[in-house]
Amino acid sequence: MKGIIFALLGGACITLQGVANTRISTDMGTWQAATVTQFTGFILAAIILMFVRDVDLHGLKQVKPLYLAGGAFGAVIIFSEVSAIQQIGVTFTISALLIAQLFLTFLVDSNGWFGVVKQKMKLPQFLGIALMITGVIIMKL
Predict the structure, then answer these.
(1) Among residues 134, 132, 15, 10, which one has the least CA distance to residue 85?
(2) Any idea what DSSP says for residue 116?
(3) What is the pLDDT of residues 27-64, one digit of tens each?
(4) Which residues does 14 contact at the CB level (< 8 Å), separation at least 6?
(5) How far apart are CA 91 and CA 98, in angstroms?
(6) What's the pTM value of the predicted model, to 2 decimals?
(7) How many CB atoms lie within 10 A of CB 87?
(8) Of 94, 98, 87, nearest to 131 (Cα)?
């Protein structure tokens, strides 16, 4: 149940962040909005880390450099999301974002990329993706 609550919270924050970033970008530019967002996210994470006191910097040496670059995707995510919201609106952007996320997750799971346990995809998973895509197309009509 905790996982579902965190997923819902994360999804809500993605939407709110996209809308906020779009408003910021109209005043100062898209890459500036990405910079401000990444910086404020860093500050909040650092503050939370100070309170949690769960610091283990020794584990940083164990992380592959490729994975350390994961945070850099945030800048691309913000730029892409803001640009899409400006062009196609919030609802369609988030819908397309979720489909892209689900499709890539499907590829990662089914191929066992990045060390995840390989999952066998069956008809229900294919139907779920197809239904989501159909829903977005219908919503956009």
Answers:
(1) 15
(2) P
(3) 999 999 999 999 999 999 889 888 887 777 777 788 88
(4) 94, 97
(5) 11
(6) 0.76
(7) 9
(8) 98
Cα separation, 47 vs 71, whole angstroms: 18
- Please give the Cα distance from 1 to 41 (Å, whole number): 26
User: Tell me: the pLDDT tens digits for 78-112?
Assistant: 999 999 999 999 888 988 888 898 888 888 988 98
Axis crossing angle, helix 123-140 with helix 90-111, rounded to the nearest 10: 160
Rounded distance between C-alpha atoms, residue 93 and residue 101, angstroms: 12
Q: What share of the chain is helix, strand, coil (3-state, %, to 5)?
A: 85, 0, 15
Q: Which amino acid is at 30?
A: T
Sign of CA dihedral 37, 48, 11, 121: positive
Which residue, chain included where needed, has tokens 């006191």? 53
